[in-house]
Amino acid sequence: MIRTVATTPFDGQKPGTSGLRKKVPVFQQPHYVENFVQSVFDSLTDFEGETLVVGGDGRYYNREAIQTVIRIAAAAGFGRVLVGKGGILSTPAASAVIRKHGAFGGLILSASHNPGGEHGDFGIKYNIGNGGPAPEPVTDAIFARSKAITQYRISDAPDVDLDTLGLTRVEDMVVDVVDPVEDYAELMGTLFDFDAIRDLFGSGFTMRFDAMSAVTGPYATAILEETLGAAPGTVVHGEPLPDFGGHHPDPNLVHAHDLYERVMAPDGPEFGAASDGDGDRNMVVGRGRFVTPSDSLAIIAANAHLAPGYRDGIKGIARSMPTSGAADRVAEKLGVKCYETPTGWKFFGNLLDAGLATVCGEESFGTGSNHVREKDGLWAVLMWLNIIAVRRQGVAEIVAGHWADFGRNYYTRHDYEEVDAAAADALVADLRARLATLPGTVINGLTVEKADDFAYHDPVDGSVTTKQGIRVFFADGSRIVYRLSGTGTAGATLRVYLERFEPDAARHDLDTQDALSDLVEIARTLPDIEGRTGRSAPTVIT
After folding, report:
1. Which residues, 6+ apart, have CB-to-CB distance to 462 below 8 Å?
2. DSSP string for 122-179
3. Roughly what angle, to the nearest 10 degrees, separates helices 326-334 and 293-303?
4. What angle do CA 440, 441, 446 make, to 5 degrees?
5. In whole angstroms, how far apart are CA 297 and each of 100, 169, 300, 379, 512?
6. Of residues 165, 8, 5, 148, the one with CA closest to residue 71
7. φ and ψ at 39, to 5 degrees?
């Protein structure tokens, strides 16, 4: 039986960079999930009888929210729901399933790299039929509907057994509980030289993959250990847990520090990697060398032809604006274009669909390609394994060789997390107001060449996206970028990005913070971060 339930709007159901993210108790409020999901469906047309993909990263409240989504989808008229067994689908796997099965779209239940647990974060994101995050016109329509909603329709059918593969019915809708790994693993097998990687592991090559008690555990175990022959135990923290084992599921040098230390040890594995809560981010580290996400993107682009799925070369590279210019130099050498977009994977979608870009990346530990429409943590790890297997070089040697060929972009990001939102907004507004007066000024010995607020003109659909980050360029080619992040759930996160290009190979082994020390000082004093926010130092440095 389908019921119509009267409701009233909730404040703040505006999808951010990657969907709606709030604390778990917010989503647990009566009608909260129902309102948002109904607002999504009310903003769509022509989906009657179509297929919807549903899954998440296994975090707390995942199963309960999925049951609600299924009931509302049945009431809305969808003909079929594909849901991952146990409610599990990594974000890139969900994109792969949407694309393979020609689904109308999908709902991904995740807050990505944000902490989980009873008092942690939760999120819901709508992906369109190309498998990618909904573009801004769709998310704007969802938000507008959420502010005016007066009712939702929902089936009162019992819960679906999410732990048993197979078909059930909810009203007139078929619910198909599927293996969450199968389609994704099949796709990876078409892209990479699995025989070469098997030979690499067979030669005694050692690796440690930290799934961070998050969604990629089942995927990494199936592909790395069971298919490619990595030693049992290569994958650690491989069981997805509702609270991610009490750890922060963000694969960076702070939250995956144990992995870094193990790989750097003289007797440690030769290669280490990690992925985040929903599987779309990655960290790569080799014995003696951590690879920054910006360098990883550039090195992957330069070596993509070594993998069967990219043997004909790449058509273009796309990077988010805060990501370093390392990929630009690769694009120039390859004779392809490098596109600079706002932060948010949805901005790569048009470029990928139009065949203008093949490899994409963000400095926030996200890399991917045209195989899906999301960044893909395990894909990046497999690409690195493919490169290592073909070149028979270690990570440190590959990175050093790349810098020798292209130069090194020293790069760091300083995050000030959970800053008072009003203070952060005022800081950015003041900087924005000073942009016209900055060029020509000398700060800490460096001359400002230009300053702007990044705006993106989409070359495919002509849309314009403004106020995407304040950029300060210096005469020596270095730059500082200030941007407020849209992925947190408390206060505001101020991200500060610093970059300097170094062509001299004799200066490629400096400590990053030392190499950028003058920029670090400017970045703090120019907007008076401490005076405006009370923060004397960043929360996280990557």
Report:
1. none
2. EEEEEE-TTSSBPPHHHHHHHHHHHTT--EEEEE-PPPP-TTS-EEEEETTEEEEEE-
3. 10
4. 100
5. 26, 44, 5, 12, 18
6. 5
7. -65, -35
Please name the residue that has the structure tokens 């992957």: 300
Model confidence pLDDT, tens digit, residues 293-328: 999 999 999 999 999 999 999 999 999 999 999 999
Contacts of 290 by beta carbon, 8 Å cutoff, 6+ apart: 253, 260, 284
The single residue listed with the structure tokens 């790994």 is 181
Query: Helix (H, G, I), strand (E, B), or coil: what is residue 402?
Result: helix
Span 258-280, pLDDT tens digits:
999 999 999 999 999 999 999 99
Catalytic residue among 112, 275, 294, 324: 112
The owner of tokens 């990175």 is 399
Angstrom CA distances, 212 to 189, 230, 258, 299, stand at 24, 18, 11, 25
Six-digit token string for 159: 């819960």
**Over the stretch 229-248, which tens digit does the pLDDT of each residue have?**
999 999 999 999 999 999 99
- In contact, 54 and 91? CB cutoff 8 Å: no
User: Tokens 């590959």 appear where?
Assistant: 398
CA distances (Å), 224 to each of 90, 185, 200, in order?
A: 16, 10, 12
Q: Assess whether 294 carries a catalytic annotation.
A: no
- Name the token pair of 392: 């028979």
Distance of CA 504 to the CA centre of its chain: 32
**Bridge partner residues of 470 (DSSP):** 453, 482
**Tokens 């689904």 appear where?**
103
Cβ distance 124 to 141 under 8 Å?
Answer: no
Collect the ranges in the chain with pLDDT lower than 70: 486-490
